[in-house]
Specification:
Length: about 120
């Protein structure tokens, strides 16, 4: 494989594996051998489904504003904020009035996200 195939762009909507997570919540997934990136777009005031998974997850708010709901707490986040979600902790996001975009990093990769589909897996 050419190394050029390992380069991607956050703003190129044609790249990655597309997945609709919930109404108004979509992602583009980039799976690797030991980690996985997911670029999540949440429409204004939309919210994901409260869920958990065994994989560790890190998130970075790239654009917009949101409320991170994690482990029973609600925390306002702004562009540049990042957080860690241990495996097994229930979590979701609610976008602010302008919507938001989040970069999620999973380790190890979530097997359910290795293919296009719907839902949080």
């Amino acid at each position: 494989m050419s190394q050029a195939e390992e380069f991607h762009n956050l703003d190129d909507e044609t790249q990655g594996l597309a997945r609709e997570l919930a109404p108004g919540v979509t992602t583009r997934i980039f799976p690797g051998e030991h980690a996985m990136l997911s670029i999540v777009t949440i429409a204004p005031d939309a919210m994901g489904t409260l869920h958990d998974h065994p994989e560790e997850q890190w998130g970075v708010l790239l654009d917009g504003s949101a409320i991170r709901i994690q482990g029973g707490e609600e925390i306002a986040v702004k562009k540049g904020d990042f957080w860690r979600t241990p495996g097994g902790v229930p979590h979701t996001m609610k976008a602010g009035p302008e919507g938001c975009r989040v970069l999620d990093i999973f380790a190890p990769p979530r097997e359910a996200y290795r293919k296009q589909g719907k839902g949080f897996g």
